[in-house]
Amino acid sequence: MLLAFHSATTMTCDLETDVAITAQAGFRALELWAGKIDRYLVDHTLADLNALLVHHHVQALAINSIEFIAFRGDEYAQIQARLHALGRVASAIGCPTVVVVPSPSPGRDVPWPAIVAEYVQVLRELSDIAQTYAIRLSFEFLGFGWCSVRTPRAASEIIQQVRRDNVGLTVDAAHFYGGGGLLSELDALNPGQIFAFHLDDLEDGPKESIDDSRRLLPGLGAVPLDDICARLKRIDYHGPCAVELFRPEYWAWNPLELAINARKAAIKVLSPYFDVE
């Protein structure tokens, strides 16, 4: 399993720092935060970004993310334009995947079949754009109570109807737990449609109050990481894993120290189940 660092873990750092500490901490890959790419490209070119990654021998695993892709009305054109922009970046740096995120619930009066139909249409249209850049879209369900797609089962139902080879899933451990996902839902997933696995943990507490600030280093919280890893191994998942920690408290740490600790914690969790690179 290719283990990657995630730019959200050091949200207050710039992209150059993220790339450098990724390499220094022993990671071979990085999931890049899209906003940091935007800031980097104000004063640099795509060629500069590619050279930065090459210099540090860091692979661009994915770009995270395009948020709230459905039920956008007149704003939907901005989602399409954003994918074109990030597609150009991904193509220039050899990044295979862009993560896309579901929207808040459109309301209780909108039935689930209508929600599915909206996402199927949107993801097919975005799939066509992604195909022009030879990249994939990884659809990440969110465990927050306000989100319209909260579990692996819900996300998988949508992906199965999209029926595009370049559209798959991101399974995030914290969102799986927060959204009330069942381990049996992981058993039902097609491993070839899981494009990314986000490893993180959460403080114990009511699931309805979960937010990103409660994330913890893997193994320090309430998420059943052993069970999740065992199920992913059982279905023969061999894809990558990124350590994604949004906790503001961690952003105040020395970034290299945080990256080193994140790698150690991740390997401790993953190594009983996967050969970690």
Summarize the structure.
The protein is of the alpha/beta class and 277 residues long.
Number of domains: 1
- Per CATH, the class reads Alpha Beta
Form type: globular
The proportion of residues forming helix, as a percent range, comes to 40-55%
Describe this structure in words.
This protein has helices at residues 15-24, 34-43, 46-55, 76-93, 112-132, 152-162, 173-178, 183-187, 225-234, 248-251, 255-270, and strands spanning 3-6, 29-33, 59-66, 97-100, 136-140, 167-172, 194-199, 201-202, 215-216, 241-243. By secondary structure, it is of the alpha/beta class. The protein has one domain: Divalent-metal-dependent TIM barrel enzymes (TIM Barrel), CATH 3.20.20.150. The strands form 2 sheets. Strands 1-2-3-4-5-6-7-10 form an 8-stranded parallel β-barrel, surrounded by 6 helices. Strands 8-9 form a two-stranded antiparallel ribbon. Helix 4 links the parallel strand 3 and strand 4 (97-100). Helix 1 (15-24) packs across helix 11 (255-270) and helix 4 crosses helix 5 (112-132). The model has no long low-confidence stretch (mean pLDDT 97).
Features:
alpha/beta; two-stranded antiparallel sheet; 10 strands; TIM Barrel; 277 residues
SSE blueprint and pairings:
Blueprint: E1 3-6, H1 15-24, E2 29-33, H2 34-43, H3 46-55, E3 59-66, H4 76-93, E4 97-100, H5 112-132, E5 136-140, H6 152-162, E6 167-172, H7 173-178, H8 183-187, E7 194-199, E8 201-202, E9 215-216, H9 225-234, E10 241-243, H10 248-251, H11 255-270
Parallel strand pairs: 1-2, 1-10, 2-3, 3-4, 4-5, 5-6, 6-7, 7-10
Antiparallel strand pairs: 8-9
Helix pairs in contact: 1-11, 4-5, 5-6
